[in-house]
Write a sequence for this structure.
């Protein structure tokens, strides 16, 4: 019987402190993974940039300069490490702590932890949080899959395929949710929602273009990562009836999101997963999304949402106008069937059982 790995050291994303939203989807994935594995007898310690707080996560904060976000780099951009790098500090701390734990789970979408994997005495499992963005990183991911295919996982098959990897033993780990935190709302108001980091790769301008045509009111929730971009697209779409609702923690977000008649998703890149899609479904909110990346694997077209031609505003408009055809209880039902914490916990344990 393979040694069960009970004591885990987790490397968080080094682009921002946990709990600020700058860590994107990894924040929710990490939070839920910690909760479900702790319930199953695992102990987790998370190495993360100082300033991180995400109770009840046990976090060891590390000082240092944040890593540039991979999505702001080009495909040929060389690997970079700033002076006093927090990523370097996290890897050094992991090296010091490796004798006290059974395995490391790496969430950093960065070359260094992949490169260092064979230098460690204990297994490093890699959870790849985004699709292919950069040649040097692609090499590192493919190399890790070649040497230990069962120690690398992705949210979705679509995401793995962007690396030219078509089967990592078929094990993908879609995010799960603590569904008790999400209330089903079957009597929504009239407005639409858009949720996510406000940054160019998320394509918010297309949602503004669409509501300029449908006349819908829309609220945007998420961390204001690129204020200039927000200002610029508002000027480009002066008739869009949109307001910024701020970055809300889960409890407040699900309460506000549940009141919406639909969630609009407009990612310009191959979204690895799309946590906001399953959060919306959990509240009974159907999703209109470009048929691209993770949301294309999550949304059941015509049943819990509409998957439309990518980058087509007219297609987005048509999807928004067809929202009333969808059943909100079917949305909640799909979240319960496919995206519960238990389902995520089972997949995580299956993944970790291959040291
Ligand atoms: N960029 N370099 C780098 N490293 C990360 O870990 C990283 C990132 N960009 C975005 C990101 N992580 C998170 O938002 C993930 O949840 C996607």
């Amino acid at each position: 019987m393979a040694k069960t790995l009970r004591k885990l050291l987790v490397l968080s994303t080094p682009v921002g402190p946990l709990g600020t939203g700058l860590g994107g989807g990894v924040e929710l994935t990490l939070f839920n993974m910690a909760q479900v594995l702790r319930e199953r007898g695992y102990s987790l310690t998370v190495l993360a940039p100082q300033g991180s707080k995400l109770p009840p996560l046990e976090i060891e904060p590390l000082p240092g300069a944040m890593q540039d976000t991979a999505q702001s780099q080009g495909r040929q951009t060389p690997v970079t490490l700033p002076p006093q790098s927090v990523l370097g500090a996290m890897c050094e701390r992991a090296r010091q702590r490796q004798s006290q734990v059974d395995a490391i789970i790496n969430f950093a979408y960065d070359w260094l932890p992949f490169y260092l994997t064979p230098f460690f005495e204990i297994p490093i499992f890699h959870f790849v949080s985004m699709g292919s963005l950069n040649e040097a990183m692609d090499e590192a991911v493919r190399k890790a899959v070649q040497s230990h295919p069962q120690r690398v996982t992705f949210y979705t098959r679509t995401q793995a395929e962007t690396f030219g990897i078509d089967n990592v033993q078929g094990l993908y780990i879609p995010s799960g949710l603590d569904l008790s935190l999400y209330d089903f709302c079957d009597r929504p108001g009239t407005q639409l929602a858009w949720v996510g980091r406000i940054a160019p790769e998320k394509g918010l301008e297309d949602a503004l273009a669409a509501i300029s045509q449908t006349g819908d009111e829309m609220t945007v929730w998420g961390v204001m990562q690129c204020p200039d971009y927000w200002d610029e697209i508002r000027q480009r779409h002066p008739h869009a009836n949109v307001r910024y609702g701020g970055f809300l923690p889960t409890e407040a977000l699900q309460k506000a999101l549940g009141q919406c008649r639909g969630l609009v998703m407009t990612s310009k890149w191959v979204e690895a997963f799309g946590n906001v899609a399953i959060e919306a479904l959990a509240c009974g909110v159907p999703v209109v999304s470009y048929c691209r990346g993770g949301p294309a694997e999550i949304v059941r077209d015509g049943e819990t949402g509409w998957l439309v031609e990518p980058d087509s505003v007219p297609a987005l408009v048509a999807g928004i106008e067809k929202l009333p055809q969808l059943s909100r209880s079917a949305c909640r039902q799909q979240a319960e069937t496919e995206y519960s914490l238990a389902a995520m916990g089972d997949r995580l344990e299956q993944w970790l059982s291959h040291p």
The mean pLDDT is 95. The chain is about 35% helix and 15% strand.
